[in-house]
């Protein structure tokens, strides 16, 4: 899946993990295990404008996944990623807080006078307080382990062509509305649902 620095999924495959899966199955192993799934590449966020991610990040549809070092300065050559003031807790199926998700928008130009674009990013962070390992037996061990895990974040960047600016958070929060068109199979099943509703509404 990785050749000449590019990452591509085979035809017919779609990479669409949940927030919980991104944190537990990709970000946690990346930050705490010597061997981890390497389908998602490491990229320096400051070296890539979002429109250059295709072919370098793991791309599925118009969504681009990559690991990056955690940093406060998210500037690139032509702009910068700006947090939009929303942070969500990621809760596992066991009702445990396992991570955090921040929302960002890409701005052209220099901060703080940049111009917003239609590129958005979700940045996943580990909630280290809920993660225990053998090295966390002492306060010093926990502090060292937490610092180690905080070095990496998992990023999901995407362009919302139908988004008319940042009018509230709803425009950015809808993960399913990421600009991906419905496949012919999805449309087929939706048409079946409509036909079934019409049949059920007919008088007996």
Automatic annotation (TrEMBL):
GO terms for biological process: regulation of DNA-templated transcription; system development. One of its GO terms (molecular function) is DNA binding. Residues 9-160 form the NAC domain. Keywords: DNA-binding, Nucleus, Transcription, Transcription regulation. It holds the Pfam family NAM. It comes from the Eukaryota. PROSITE patterns: NAC. SUPFAM superfamilies: NAC domain. This is NAC domain-containing protein. It comes from Vigna angularis var. angularis. The gene is Vigan.01G072000.
């Amino acid at each position: 899946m990785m050749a000449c620095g590019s990452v591509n999924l085979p035809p017919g495959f779609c990479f669409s993990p949940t927030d919980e899966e991104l944190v537990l199955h990709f970000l946690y192993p990346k930050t705490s295990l010597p061997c981890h799934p390497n389908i998602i590449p490491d990229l320096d966020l400051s070296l890539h404008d979002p429109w250059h991610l295709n072919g370098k990040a793991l791309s599925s549809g118009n969504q681009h996944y990559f690991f990056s070092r955690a940093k406060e300065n998210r500037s690139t050559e032509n702009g910068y990623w700006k947090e939009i003031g929303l942070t969500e807790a990621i809760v596992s199926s066991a009702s445990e807080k396992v991570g955090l998700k921040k929302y960002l928008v890409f701005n052209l130009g220099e901060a703080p006078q940049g111009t917003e674009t239609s590129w958005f990013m979700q940045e996943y962070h580990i909630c280290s307080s809920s993660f225990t390992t053998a090295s966390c037996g002492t306060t010093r061990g926990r502090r060292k382990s937490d610092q180690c895990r905080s070095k990496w974040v998992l990023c999901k960047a995407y362009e919302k062509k139908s988004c008319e600016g940042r009018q509230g958070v709803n425009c950015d929060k809808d993960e399913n509305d990421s600009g991906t068109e419905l496949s012919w199979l999805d449309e087929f099943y939706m048409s079946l649902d409509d036909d079934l509703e019409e049949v059920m509404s007919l008088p007996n």
